[in-house]
């Protein structure tokens, strides 16, 4: 099969399209014919050496959609439309930048019967599963809350806006550029705040009592400020690293953490584990909402399989403004 491999740290040009052997599935695995995959900063960081050294041959990619080739357990049938994400992809096993991928069965989700193209389906898994993992237990069954999405123009930020709105929440989205406000409003934001680095006071102007939930996509650089936008018993969940290293220097629990608020971190590596089984995920429901046009499509551009390096350049130059996918 053809797959992209990385053999050394570097820029987009270190991505090499090669013929490599298919991987036969073990008892707890499923082999999938990849039809399309989404692109993520995690793959950029992996290629650049920011997520560990490149030892040997690495196939990048942390998500894909396609058709089942082989599942010895019979849980998934041959030809069934599925999605997969995480489960060690690009770290402990070959990733999804390939014609085929062999993955843990626990990280496979049924998508049969959804009337969406492969490209549209590929825009969903990693972004929406991350948002569900971070927010689902806070907002899925409690509509009418106010949710702040800090860093909302990223692909996962846009997914958070759309998901929170679909769950019946009031959504405040932030962006550093006023030119992005119309896009965020179109996908579900009730209010858009221009992020100057310190916006808690502006948020209080929109939601005087504070917000119930803050999703931090920017990360450590702005999390103290986001905490100050919470109401008592509100929760801030950090999922992003857009603002740099995930380190808070000299965190003062009494001064930096407002009274009766909570700070959490969610990493998508938890997806598919016993703590967060993907059988419980709403991904198929989300896909149906997008097919019904109840939720917006977040896909902004599709690349051909031989053009992945240019897709990486687009992400690195911060020109994506939504989800990029690759058609295989």
From TrEMBL:
Gene3D superfamilies: Medium-chain alcohol dehydrogenases, catalytic domain, NAD(P)-binding Rossmann-like Domain. It holds the Pfam family ADH_N. Residues 10-326 form the Enoyl reductase (ER) domain. The keyword Transport does not apply. InterPro entries: ADH-like_C, ADH-like_N, ER, GroES-like_sf, NAD(P)-bd_dom_sf. Keywords: NADP, Oxidoreductase. This is Zinc-binding dehydrogenase. It comes from Serratia liquefaciens.
